[in-house]
Every structure is written in C-alpha cells, then in structure tokens.
C-alpha cells in the first residue's frame, strides 16, 4: 500500500551491536528484494561512530554484503538503484546529514 509512494529508504543500523548484524542483514536483504523498491535509493546509516569498539566502514560493507554501493561522487547514475553507507552518530549529530544531501 505504501510502496508506490516511497522515494527512498533510510536504514539505520547500530554497528556497535555485533550480535544483531545477522538480523540487520536479513531485514536489509528483505527490503532490497522487494520488487516495488528496485529503483528506490537506499541510505544506510552506520550509527555510533562515537562509541568504542565500532567496526570500520569496510567491515560494514562486508557484513551485509554491500560491495556494490554506488559511491558518493557527482557522476550521474541512471537505471540502477543508488545505495550508499554513511557513518554517523545520532547522539553527536554527525554524519547523517551528508546522506541526505543532493549533489
């Protein structure tokens, strides 16, 4: 019912909670496989960069299998789903705004 009006998906993950990575991956995979969302951009926010013991951005790509992110460059991309990861700290109000900026 809501999917035809969706312009983008923001997927927030607490990347300090390693035990829940499989759950996050399963949910993200489910969203990415929905046919109505095939051309909808995905913004993945890795929260808690301010905490100790947080994995790196490259580890974040590996765990959910996000090797095909589209990059943050200014190259226009057509006919592909835009997916990118931004590291952030909601508490410190850092990083998440960059994911919403349009080049």
UniProtKB/TrEMBL annotation:
<dbReference type="InterPro" id="IPR027417">
    <property type="entry name" value="P-loop_NTPase"/>
</dbReference>
<feature type="binding site">
    <location>
        <position position="91"/>
    </location>
    <ligand>
        <name>GTP</name>
    </ligand>
</feature>
<keyword id="KW-0342">GTP-binding</keyword>
<dbReference type="GO" id="GO:0005783">
    <property type="term" value="C:endoplasmic reticulum"/>
</dbReference>
<dbReference type="GO" id="GO:0006886">
    <property type="term" value="P:intracellular protein transport"/>
</dbReference>
<dbReference type="GO" id="GO:0003924">
    <property type="term" value="F:GTPase activity"/>
</dbReference>
<comment type="similarity">
    <text>Belongs to the small GTPase superfamily. SAR1 family.</text>
</comment>
<feature type="binding site">
    <location>
        <position position="90"/>
    </location>
    <ligand>
        <name>GTP</name>
    </ligand>
</feature>
<dbReference type="GO" id="GO:0005525">
    <property type="term" value="F:GTP binding"/>
</dbReference>
<feature type="binding site">
    <location>
        <position position="47"/>
    </location>
    <ligand>
        <name>GTP</name>
    </ligand>
</feature>
<keyword id="KW-0256">Endoplasmic reticulum</keyword>
<keyword id="KW-0813">Transport</keyword>
<dbReference type="GO" id="GO:0005794">
    <property type="term" value="C:Golgi apparatus"/>
</dbReference>
<dbReference type="GO" id="GO:0016192">
    <property type="term" value="P:vesicle-mediated transport"/>
</dbReference>
<dbReference type="InterPro" id="IPR006687">
    <property type="entry name" value="Small_GTPase_SAR1"/>
</dbReference>
<dbReference type="Pfam" id="PF00025">
    <property type="entry name" value="Arf"/>
</dbReference>
<dbReference type="InterPro" id="IPR006689">
    <property type="entry name" value="Small_GTPase_ARF/SAR"/>
</dbReference>
<keyword id="KW-0333">Golgi apparatus</keyword>
<keyword id="KW-0653">Protein transport</keyword>
<keyword id="KW-0547">Nucleotide-binding</keyword>
<keyword id="KW-0931">ER-Golgi transport</keyword>
<protein>
    <submittedName>
        <fullName>ADP-ribosylation factor family-domain-containing protein</fullName>
    </submittedName>
</protein>
């Amino acid at each position: 019912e809501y999917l035809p009006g969706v312009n983008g998906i923001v997927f927030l993950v607490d990347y300090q909670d390693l035990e829940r990575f499989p759950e996050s991956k399963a949910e993200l995979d489910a969203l990415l496989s929905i046919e109505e969302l095939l051309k909808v951009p995905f913004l993945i926010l890795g929260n808690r960069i301010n905490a100790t013991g947080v994995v790196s951005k490259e580890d974040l790509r590996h765990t959910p299998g996000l090797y095909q992110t589209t990059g943050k460059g200014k190259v226009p991309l057509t006919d592909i789903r835009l997916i990118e990861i931004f590291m952030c700290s909601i508490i410190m109000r850092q990083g998440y705004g960059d994911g919403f900026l349009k080049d």
